[in-house]
Design brief:
This protein is α+β, with helices and mostly antiparallel strands. Helices cover 18% and strands 26% of the residues. The strands form three sheets. Strands 1, 2, 3, 4, 8, 11, 12, 13 and 14 form a nine-stranded mixed β-sheet that branches. It has a three-stranded antiparallel β-sheet with strand order 5-6-7, with no helix packed on it. The longest helix is centred in the middle third of the chain and has 12 residues.
């Protein structure tokens, strides 16, 4: 995405103070609250991306590859040409399985701390007479193959590297919508899913002025963050959940992002609207 989420529709609120579902062009999200049986249970915001994988080769050019002497060729995101090998069923199956596991890198890694004066998620529980629980919001992520509508369409290739490709150290450069077979085995998958979750490269996320103009400049990849050349997560990587919680709740107060995902709900005395500092059990 690397842009503001394009919101299409919100589910009706019914008797709730927040929207249970929000539909964006890039994803589907749902916000749910605990049923009250467990006072230590937080609420959860689930982002689901429906995706499709199109395996490109000589038999399926997919509007991307082209034939020369009965062999398929394709250009990567830098415009460099590569010959392609055909896919076999086992290779496709393996890629599908590995791609689906990519959701675990982004799932359950962030927590949104509910503002002290926002009570729409509060629920009564066994926390004690005269109290309600104010849950925080766990950030969950799901990849769903073949769902409708399709949010993310990916074309996958098997580059057939020539002797000179290897000598020159050339490698097919992937992007959010174009993968090579090796990407499912590397942190490239996590990085590209980060783009699907509305993130630019890390220095752009941090507000670097030059990277806001050219997000693919080398400087924009600096550091250990997954949206650079590393594999780490920081609170800035929760961008999509931070955007969507505003859409679900229409609350413009500060939802602080934490990586302490097991932070429990707060216990609120009945009738208290502005909690101030969090209390604990």
């Amino acid at each position: 995405m690397a842009k503001q989420l394009n919101i299409r529709q919100k589910a009706r609120k019914f008797d709730s103070k927040f929207y249970h579902e929000v539909l964006a062009d890039e994803c589907h999200s749902s916000l749910e609250v605990p049923d009250g049986r467990n006072p230590m249970q937080n609420a959860w915001l689930t982002i689901t991306i429906n995706y499709s994988l199109d395996f490109i080769d000589r038999r399926n050019l997919g509007g991307k590859a082209y034939l020369k002497n009965n062999k398929a060729y394709v250009k990567d995101s830098d415009g460099v040409e590569f010959a392609l090998s055909d896919w076999d069923s086992q290779s496709q199956t393996n890629f599908n399985k590995k791609f689906a596991k990519g959701e675990s890198f982004w799932n359950y890694k962030f927590l949104l701390i509910t503002p002290a004066d926002y009570d729409a998620l509060d629920f009564t529980s066994m926390a004690g007479q005269g109290f309600v629980c104010r849950p925080n919001v766990i950030c969950l992520f799901r990849l769903k193959p073949g769902g409708t509508p399709t949010h993310l369409s990916i074309k996958v290739v098997r580059p057939d590297l020539s002797f000179w490709d290897n000598v020159l150290g050339r490698s097919y450069r992937s992007d959010e919508f174009n993968y090579k077979i090796e990407d499912a085995d590397t942190k490239t998958l996590w990085h590209e899913l980060g783009h699907a979750l509305d993130q630019d490269h890390v220095m752009a996320l941090k507000g670097d002025a030059r990277c806001m103009v050219d997000i693919n400049a080398d400087r924009c990849y600096e550091g250990p963050n997954i949206m650079g050349r590393g594999s780490q997560l920081e609170t800035i990587n929760a961008r999509a959940w931070s955007e969507l919680i505003y859409q679900h709740t229409e609350n413009r107060q500060q939802w602080v992002v934490s990586q302490a995902v097991n932070t429990p709900p707060r216990r609120i005395p009945l009738g208290v609207a502005n909690l101030g500092k969090p209390t604990s059990f």
